[in-house]
Amino acid sequence: MSPETARFNGLRALVVEDETIIALLVEDMLKELGFNEVVKASSVPQAIAALETAPPDIVILDVNLAGVQAYPVAERLQSPDAFMPVELGNYVLRLPPTTERDRVLDTIAAGVARHGIPEETHNIKRLI
Prior knowledge:
Helices cover about 40% and strands about 25% of the residues. With about 130 residues, the chain is α/β, with parallel strands linked by helices.
């Protein structure tokens, strides 16, 4: 296991995205980064059920799910003690406070760069 993938070994992610190809791409990126489990939800009820079943270490939330606003999911993540918001394009990542912020952001930035996503489309570098 490389040092990069060891950073996220044992962590669980929730990807809330209605576009299957995007959800699969994000899942692949997270698994490449070392996440052991990536749960996908394509609707508000699925996302809420996933949050209640087993709280994730990181949430990547698309706020528009096939025309339905994902605000009920975002509201579940609003507690400042529960998650730290990180904006990434049209997405909001919510990281629990126990997650090492710099470690997460460094690794996400590396993954984003490795996949050729232009820097101007995200704010990861500004957050590091």
